[in-house]
Q: What sequence folds into this?
């Protein structure tokens, strides 16, 4: 048990009552610890801070109330959201779902001198951004992102206290985290197929005005639906850092990219370095181990996949200048 924090309430076999909740709109007000936060941390334990900041919330049993049973732990850690698999009979029958609790008590509280993010602002940021993303991606639910079952609030009680936390329910994905897999077990053609699915999924998000901002193997699930073990589906998860809205000036967005599918030739150009997140070396037993998913000429492969694609908007000189004009290291690479 962490000092100042009670044992986790997200225990297998526990039933929780949750109420439908509408989150605030996502903001970018900052998550850093303030001087007032540091002073509060010197005086109060994490639990005391949570109780002091708790705001009473009307809690009633009604049509928007559900009972969920925690079935298994998925990720219970100090430093972020708490994730468990659950059963919600009134919502999904016997189907397993994932419940993700944005509980500030189990975010990192640190020490008064730390400059890490404030746990309360971090939890609120993650909750508001992730719910906004799922709402924006309704057309993609059950494909490259999990099906979304809504946002909720839950009252947790202790010996002499009650506090509320927020959560979402999403589809349980029977897949494997890409970070936990050894790319050497996948021949290069299969890894290229996987990377193509990832680029297409990211492009689909962007077509819905969503930017993931943490597209990394740890946030990608690989799914095999046949006995051969061949990867047939990838699913993107963890949208706490994501944004809804394109990171381009409004005038430019309206003129060139609003409502269109931007080609991977622009967004995944090698100079933007998105693919470098899939090139990894780890220090294991006094030696560097290559655990890279990408070990080929990225730019040539990119063009071989999408140069003649009609699925995306035609690239104009203005679009090329906007996306790649700031990269002056060398001319736009082209396949030989």
A:
């Amino acid at each position: 048990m962490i000092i100042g924090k009670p044992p986790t309430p997200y225990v297998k076999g526990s039933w929780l009552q949750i109420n439908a909740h509408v989150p605030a709109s996502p903001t970018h007000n900052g998550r850093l610890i303030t001087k007032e936060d540091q002073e509060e941390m010197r005086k109060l334990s994490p639990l005391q801070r949570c109780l002091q900041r708790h705001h009473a919330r009307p809690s009633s049993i009604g049509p928007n109330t559900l009972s969920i049973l925690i079935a298994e732990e998925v990720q219970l850690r100090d430093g972020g959201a708490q994730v468990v698999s659950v059963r919600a009979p009134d919502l999904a029958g016997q189907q397993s779902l994932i419940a993700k609790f944005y509980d500030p008590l189990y975010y990192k509280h640190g020490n008064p001198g730390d400059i890490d993010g404030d746990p309360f602002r971090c939890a609120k940021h993650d909750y508001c951004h992730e719910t906004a993303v799922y709402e924006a991606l309704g057309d993609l639910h059950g494909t490259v992102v999990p099906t979304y079952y809504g946002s909720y609030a839950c009252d947790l009680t202790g010996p002499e206290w009650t506090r509320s936390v927020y959560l979402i329910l999403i589809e349980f994905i029977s897949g494997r985290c890409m970070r936990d897999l050894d790319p050497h077990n996948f021949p290069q053609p299969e890894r290229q197929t996987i990377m193509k699915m990832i680029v297409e999924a990211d492009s689909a998000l962007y077509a819905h005005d969503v930017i993931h901002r943490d597209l990394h193997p740890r946030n990608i699930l690989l799914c095999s639906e046949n006995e051969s073990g061949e990867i047939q589906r990838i699913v993107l998860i963890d949208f706490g850092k994501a944004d809804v809205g394109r990171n381009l000036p409004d005038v430019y967005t309206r003129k060139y990219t609003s409502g269109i599918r931007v080609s991977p030739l622009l967004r995944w150009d090698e100079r933007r370095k998105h693919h470098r997140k899939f090139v990894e070396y780890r220090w294991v037993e006094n030696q560097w181990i290559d655990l890279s998913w990408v070990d080929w000429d990225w730019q040539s492969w990119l063009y071989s996949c999408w140069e003649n694609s009609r699925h995306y908007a035609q690239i104009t000189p203005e679009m090329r200048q906007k996306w790649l004009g700031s990269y002056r290291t060398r001319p736009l690479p082209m396949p030989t």
Notes: Confidence is low (pLDDT under 50) at residues 58-62. The two ends are 59 Å apart (CA to CA). Residues 30 and 308 are 42 Å apart (CA to CA). The chain is about 25% helix and 20% strand.
